């Protein structure tokens, strides 16, 4: 069914169009949302229809964007925190003339299509992947932070949120930071359609309740009838002028525009069957062919970044006892000579030593307080604008942001993460503070690089290397001080390993990383005193791991002990086994890892209690050799 | 240095003592916090000193607790959300007469001690492990929920929070649910000492800002001078009478009572050196020997739980196409015949099918809305009171609660978790909704059980088995419907496996779980048509995994292909390699897993694109056999 648009076929809608035309655009977005999802046989038309007026007004009259040049630095940013409303987003792209009708109808949610079920940055107009609710707004805070504090750019950040996702704590971490950072360039638009996936939302249409929360968290709240284009227009105008970040709470109806589903339960995430879709399109006034010609980007020439100064990395003396977390801080401070490097903390910068960077570059250092999810989201948002964020907290507490790390990989974000205080090595603070699952978590992230140095010079080299890695890289650092094993300036290629001990007649290989390298070396000393030459391999690059060196050692020595300060699952031992299996090498094998629940104690006591200390490694080697 | 108490040595303090005596108790808690941490050489005395008056008033006059009978069902619950203030908590235990002075001074933070750096339930008076900030209050909500909605018990739940942790989104998820559930038996006490680990907190002493947030989230806020024992006493009295959950915002001074550190930066997490400790004890009036005799528990005889009805588990016909997520819902609804079983949802119960339980047992089903962290915390809190919570969401979104799952293992909690919509199998919704890292996450949890059934009858058996497992158990379910392979009533022991296809002359073993079992069977059919007999093993128990069956198959067939709908890291392939390495068996090996970033498509298209479908398994087998 095709109906002529009241504005005529092929009419354009823009800032000077009257609001009737904008309403027509909204109806077009609804119709196209229905058509795309019905054609795909899945998707969320009703969640798109509720927000169509909001997005039509934004697209035609308030968004500053050059659709042909999505990389224009002056472009506004539009993030669909409610990523399931992708039919609406793609209908907007169609209205903006960058996605054809054919693509919208024939490719949405199909294999190999860029019009995925939830938006990802394979589309040039999409900054970040969404679809895990409560994440788009936190990312928006990161992008807006860049605009206000780092770029001093004129762009605005618009985030469309669902009302269901307002129960995620991450939303409140985001609004708290938006208020604290004074991000007047950020507007969140909450589509309060009162219906979640399985029924009514917690707060329904109680806009006042939402507004009270928003205001208490330091942002300006504005309530609006979400299908009144004139009211919406005024609200956006207000938000643009506001000196605070603004949250527009729009009362909307799920499925608005089609009486058979409007405000009805049971229609979340369901495309309309073809006959219903026909009736919906009819009720919505038929298919339209409006094209949007909105505002172009505000003029903005990004200031030339100051030329990178020479990076003078710190150097440590052989034998000096240095904690790798301390070396991380010093290396990061040195890397600050590269103007794109930004430091992020979650209130433990004096422990992770991220604070060293803050002392030199306070303007490029952002405090998240204890809000690890927002720290990660800020990092993702900054990476959208080309910054190179380094975010650090305790390895254990990075688990708090696991879903954000996972989604950052879908966003193809480039991030450097550092987790300090790994393993039982931390000592008396006990298991709540021990990163014992972080390697499993970070290894399983798509495209990640996982690094775990055992000394200060390795840490420096790897911290520096992270600035040029694609994807999400992770550096695991240790609390206590251990002797420097490698000379300053030595190369530590990602994917490589070191062999600090070897001989022509090694009978066994001891594999460690971080603190267990030192334990392996001590065990090798003991074994040597018994006439057994042991090779020691430092797999500082846990992912990718040096399969060649491991396979060679396994073939040459025939026996291999892995000791790791981590749970047995998903860590170094399994990485080694995977690498050896790929090479079809199968040495005798022993795997020492933290198998029980640790408590308090000294580092040495806890390494020993966990069975990963030098005597345990020595014993395991002896058993393998006698077995 | 020992000073006589103004109330005489060995005096007792209790509800009828005057407030001067309560203040003396507070000073004792400070002195003992200083002594314990100085003696240990680590710990957080200043964070203990700020909250000492609050806890002295609570301990002497408001907490209803039989210290000799920590399992008394009428006991109040006290949770230190700021777990680093363990010196204060242990000083309270000492004052209550259940921890000796010798233990406090000689054992705190030592190896093998129950007085760990952060409290854990190895102590009988501790419900849950804390130390990852922002978690204690969410757990308190779970305990209070049990008291109000399930037990109708008279106990109160008191949670001591730090001010720094109020920036965690999880705190606001907790307060939102406390308000929504109307938990008038819950009192949170926020020790607003204005100093975090590395400097001033975000909101400093702005009690009004905190109060606005608390009220906006549906709880009553009360501000109080945190060193005025009379004012504190009144505030607790008010909270006890309040018809809403109450948050007492107490203005305090970090290091209160010792002028050299009071309100000073740089003293977080640092024990006082011995000489300073001496001066502190002097300024605090010396060592006291007060004993608390507070209120006993309110009389409460828990109602006898209704006798368990017979559990009539659902049964499915061989060959019937059923989604395992659907079987989970039906099994859970049947398990509801056991009165201790409770269901939890995070707004996706119609997708996970947890809703099936809600339909039969609405009174034992709690909606968390989209707040996965709080869903986990509620589960932990309910498990404290002996309930058997089953909490479900998409496998992908369980990563949101990773830190809570990790800490639940330190709490020795018994939980059943279900993650639906695992892997690329989900189809068109795309990677944001695909659980691809959940096996790595859940395997690395201490003491966890990880289950991944391929058919409906296996799902039923395993869902039922989870009710009797210790620790944290995890069931991974699939979106689409697949044929029932096993007869109803068949046993699926944890740690076992099934071999749905085998012969005396199998030349290769195909290992799968969940959807890939079906792919392996199809591949075995193809191979059989080529004259190659392939064994198929269904490792429905991923942790513990059936090392015997795998090793036997590897030895008998000499070649093994693992196919999994999960990232290659930390999943089934590595679990299999670990099991084989333990048995010193090394077959030729191929590992098919999801190595790229998936997009949208049908299940079949995506399994194929990921290289884990039947033709890929067949090819991998052929390659291994010809290699």
TrEMBL record, chains A, B:
Keyword Oxidoreductase annotated: no
Record-stated family: Belongs to the transketolase family.
Protein name per UniProt: Transketolase
Source organism (scientific name): Streptantibioticus rubrisoli
Source organism, top-level taxon: Bacteria
Cofactors: thiamine diphosphate; Mn(2+); Ca(2+); Mg(2+)
Quaternary data: Homodimer.
Cited InterPro entries: THDP-binding, Transketo_C/PFOR_II, Transketolase-like, Transketolase-like_Pyr-bd, Transketolase_BS, Transketolase_C, Transketolase_N
Sorted UniProt keywords: Calcium, Magnesium, Metal-binding, Thiamine pyrophosphate, Transferase
Ranges where the Transketolase-like pyrimidine-binding domain occurs: 322-484
Pfam families according to UniProt: Transket_pyr (PF02779), Transketolase_C (PF02780), Transketolase_N (PF00456)
Molecular function via GO: transketolase activity
Annotated CDD domains: TPP_PYR_DXS_TK_like (cd07033), TPP_TK (cd02012)
């Amino acid at each position: 069914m095709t109906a002529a648009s009241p504005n005529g076929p092929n009419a354009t809608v823009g800032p000077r169009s009257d609001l009737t035309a904008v309403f027509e655009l909204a109806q077009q977005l609804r119709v196209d949302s229905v058509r795309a999802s019905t054609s795909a046989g899945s998707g969320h038309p009703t969640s798109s229809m509720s927000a169509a007026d909001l997005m039509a007004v934004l697209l035609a009259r308030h968004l500053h964007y050059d659709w042909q040049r999505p990389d224009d630095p002056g472009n506004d940013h539009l993030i669909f925190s409610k990523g399931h409303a992708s039919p609406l987003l793609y209908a907007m792209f169609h209205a903006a003339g960058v996605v054809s009708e054919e693509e919208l109808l024939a490719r949405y949610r199909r294999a190999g299509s860029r019009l995925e079920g939830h938006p990802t940055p394979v589309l040039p107009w999409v900054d970040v992947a969404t679809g895990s609710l409560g994440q788009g707004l936190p990312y928006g805070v990161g992008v807006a932070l860049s605009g206000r504090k780092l770029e001093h750019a004129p762009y605005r950040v618009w985030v469309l949120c669902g009302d269901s996702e307002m129960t995620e704590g991450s939303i409140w971490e985001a609004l708290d930071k938006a208020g604290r950072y004074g991000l007047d360039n950020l507007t969140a638009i909450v589509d309060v359609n009162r219906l979640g996936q399985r029924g009514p939302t917690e707060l329904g249409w109680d806009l006042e309740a939402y507004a009270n929360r928003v205001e208490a968290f330091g942002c300006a709240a504005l309530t609006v009838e979400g299908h009144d284009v004139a009211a919406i227009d005024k609200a956006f105008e207000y938000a643009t002028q506001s000196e605070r970040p603004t949250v527009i709470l729009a009362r909307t109806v799920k499925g608005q525009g089609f009486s058979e589903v409007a405000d009805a339960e049971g229609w979340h995430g369901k495309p309309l069957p073809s006959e219903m879709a026909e009736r919906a399109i009819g009720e919505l006034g038929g298919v339209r062919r409006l094209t949007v010609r909105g505002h172009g980007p505000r003029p903005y020439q990004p200031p030339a970044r100051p030329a990178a100064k020479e990076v003078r990395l710190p150097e440590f003396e052989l034998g000096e006892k240095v904690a790798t977390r301390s070396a991380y801080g010093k290396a990061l401070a040195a890397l600050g000579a590269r103007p794109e490097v930004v430091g992020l903390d979650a209130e433990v910068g004096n422990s992770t030593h991220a604070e060293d960077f803050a002392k030199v570059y306070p303007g490029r250092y952002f405090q998240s307080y204890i809000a690890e999810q927002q720290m990660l989201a800020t990092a993702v948002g900054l990476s959208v604008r080309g910054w190179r964020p380094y975010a650090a907290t305790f390895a254990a507490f990075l688990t708090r942001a696991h879903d954000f790390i996972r989604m950052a990989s879908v966003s193809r974000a480039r991030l450097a993460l550092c987790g300090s205080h790994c393993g039982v090595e931390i000592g008396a603070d006990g298991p709540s503070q021990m990163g014992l699952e972080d390697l499993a978590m970070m290894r399983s992230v798509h495209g990640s690089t996982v690094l775990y140095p055992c000394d200060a010079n390795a840490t420096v080299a790897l911290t520096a290397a992270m600035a040029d890695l694609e994807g999400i890289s992770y550096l695991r650092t240790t609390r206590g001080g251990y002797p420097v094993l490698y000379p300053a300036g030595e190369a530590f290629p990602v994917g490589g390993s070191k062999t600090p001990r070897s001989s022509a007649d090694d009978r066994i290989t001891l594999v460690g990383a971080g603190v267990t390298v030192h334990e392996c070396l001590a065990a090798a000393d003991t074994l040597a005193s018994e006439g057994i030459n042991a090779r020691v391999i430092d797999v500082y690059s846990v992912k990718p791991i040096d399969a060649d060196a491991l396979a060679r050692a396994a073939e040459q020595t025939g026996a291999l002990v892995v000791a790791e300060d981590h749970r047995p699952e998903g860590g170094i031992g399994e990485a080694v086994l995977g690498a050896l299996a790929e090479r079809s090498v199968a040495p005798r094998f022993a795997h020492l890892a933290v198998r029980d629940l640790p408590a308090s104690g000294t580092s040495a006591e806890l390494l020993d209690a966990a069975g990963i200390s030098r005597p345990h490694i020595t014993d395991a080697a002896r058993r393998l050799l006698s077995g």
